[in-house]
Amino acid sequence: MVTQSAGILLYRLDGGGGVSAFVAHMGGPYWASKDEGAWSVPKGELEDGEETLDAAKREFREELGVAPPEADYAELGTFAYSSGKRVTVFVADGAGFEAEGFVFGEFEMEWPPRSGRTASFPEVDRAEWMPLDRARERVVKGQRPAFDRLAELLSAADT
Which residues belong to any copy of the Nudix hydrolase domain (predicted)? Predict the structure, then answer.
């Protein structure tokens, strides 16, 4: 069965005509020393019967400990990872959303592997605004088409 996730990609226009995206660095021991390909839009799996946008907003709140901004959300598309996992990304103008006050959600896993011990780790360990092109380089490969699509839509809106 294909895993279905939903997430939120916030963007904002910078004063000089640039665009920034809000992304989160994945938590846990596997991602701790990685940067490129270790960032993501706040996202997570849908629960049974849950609407996709509702799941995206719930996951944003669970991962960051803050509510997603009140905004007009539009479905950017559904993007497939090489693993087969699919993530539906919603986009919104995040102007005014400050990257602060986070209380990161946690998950448990056996660590170190095969030790029989369980440890708790943050789902994400930091989140920040960064230029759209830089964010695209840093997110996991399966999400890069979402950033490309956002750039296309913003470019078309400029013309």
Answer: 1-152
